[in-house]
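Comment thread on ticket #2218

A.B. wrote:
> Attaching the input chain for the structure job we discussed in standup.
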Amino acid sequence: MFNRPSRPLNDARGRPFTEFVNRGAFAESLRSGDVWALWNHDAGEVLARHPDTMTLAEDDIGLRFSFELPDTSRGNDVRSLMQAGTLLGQMSFGFRVRQDKWDTRGDERVRNLLDVELVEISVVPEGAYPATNSQLRHGGRLALAKRRLALLRSVR
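C.D. wrote:
> Ran it. Output below, let me know if you need it in another format.
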C-alpha cells in the first residue's frame, strides 16, 4: 500500500523507524525483472513467478498481483489456511533499495522507499505493512477442480 506506514521496524543498529513505500517505487522492477511469489519469504516454497505465472502491476493503491495457487502441498496449505481464516491475507515483499529518503517526524525516524528492486512477494502470517491484503477468488478453486478432473480422466 503506497504511503501507508509499516509496523515499527529496526535498522541494522537496532534503531526504530517507520517505512513508507512511495508510488512508483516498484515501476522499474516490474519492467525488467523476475519476481517470485513465495510462502513466508522462503525461496524453497515457490508459489508463482512473474511474468510466467503471476501478474504484477502498480495501481493507485499499491502493488497489485494475481496468481493461481499451485496444486502443491504448500499451495494447498495456503489455500486451506486462507479459507479457514487462519491466514488473514497479509502480504510482504523482499527487495533491495535503489533509492530511499530518510526524514524525521517529531521523534520518529521515517524511511521513504523511492525505488526498489523487487525480488519477491510473500504470503505471510503477519506482514510489516498491516494495510496489505490478499484474498482467494472462487476461480482459483474452479481451476483446481478442473485440473483434478482432467487428471482423473487421464488415469482412466
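A.B. wrote:
> Thanks. Noting for the ticket: The helical segments are 27-32, 73-84, 138-155.
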